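Colleagues,

Please find the record for the two-part complex below.
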Amino acid sequence: MSILASEWLKVRSIRSTYLIIGLSLSAVLLGLGLAAMAAGMYDSAPPDKRPNARIAELEEVLVIVPQLCMGILGTLAMTSEYVTGLIRTSLTVVPRRWPILTAKATIIGFLGLIVGPAAVFGTYFVSRWILGDRFSGAYTTEFLDRLPILAASSLTVPVFALLGLGLGALLRSTAGAIATIAGLVYVIPIIIGNLPEPWSERLGSLMIGALPRQITGDGNASSVFGSLLPPAAAGACLAAYAALPVLAAIWLVRRRDV
Amino acid sequence: MLDAVIELHQLTKHYGGTLAVDDLSFKVEPGHVTGFLGPNGAGKSTTMRLILGLDAPTSGQALVNGRRYATLSRPMHEVGALLDAGAVHGGRSAYNHLLCLARTNDISATRVAEALEQVGLSGVARKRVGGFSLGMKQRLGIAAALLGDPGVLMFDEPVNGLDPDGVRWIRDLMRSLAAEGRTILLSSHLMSEMALTAERIVIIGRGKLIAESTVAELTARYPSLEDAYMALTADSVQYGAAR
């Protein structure tokens, strides 16, 4: 408990935490801007074109903002200690070592669980408010029907936060961990998209971006990834993205010289 | 507190093919300052990391109060250490930095304020550490080591970056901590300063023990502690790149 209090203070006592959380929540403002722009375009389009106008679910597009930001927060929670050398002091005062990582994971995961839904649901509500029944009623679906996918998208945010933490601890390098996360989001999906079938769809189904819709069971055929996993397997896959790096880090930090 | 000692038994550490600490055995006793000397790269910092359980020895062992450091549950109450004054997050205030450390060992915020007072940083307690001079960071590191009021203290070059005022302050602090019966291991390259501060001296070179003696014995045999150091380490001066 005392270690949890210490790690909580570590997170609270530096400005970059607030900056990163603010940036994560800026997804809502981006959503507001994009929705207003789309509404303007829709309203100025000739009436006969309007029925064919489509819009992507903005909260599912913009979730990438809190994903990356919280991934960076998780990374920095670990690498800022390695870069400064503070990790030596931290591990000296807690020689068992692993409680430091579990405390960090608890706090970073908790922040992700707050920030993720705030960003996703916030984006959803401002989009719904601004777009109304435009775009063939894309945002007039009952909120309760949209709730599962909104929740599943929100959950990817703490997953990214913990993935960042785990990679930060394993690689001990801010650049390395953030590059890995960015690669996972941007580069690997492009490579996988260009693989021959069936590998493109098989591997694509495992990408984080593909998991929320597989978890809710409304995997659509138009997904750029793939949708081969049943909901439970997709949920397990999402959990593994967070758990495996953190568990590997806990295992390694107990053995590694610092 | 009189049985509080650091004991090294045939401590050895390899990093890949490099032998950093080689079959090193010595004891550090309570009640006086023990100076820890050796050329750059001799293995002083590695030895301190091995004592603190940060690095695992290849063979041999280091004991603090008769136990391996890694088995201590609230170590700040037994051992305080300053390895690298720069190892702080520049964005955190001095007070929060210390409080983060204190919390892990159930040390109170009152004690944090006391430690800041003791090292003369009360006035800048709420300032971000990034703006501190090296001397101020050394004082902050010393405050961190003192937080748990430990019987064993280790300082790796704490005098670096301090002004003459600070150098004298460290000297007086070390001696008064030793006079309270604590065990103090202090590394430094400033021989004149060490001659004034330490009573016993351990000299290592290339990871091996070169001499374990008292300042009085060394200055009786040689013109000064500096001359003693130069003579004893003449064969051990080397730099990493020469390997």
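Chain B has a mean pLDDT of 93.

Comments are welcome before we finalize the supplementary table.
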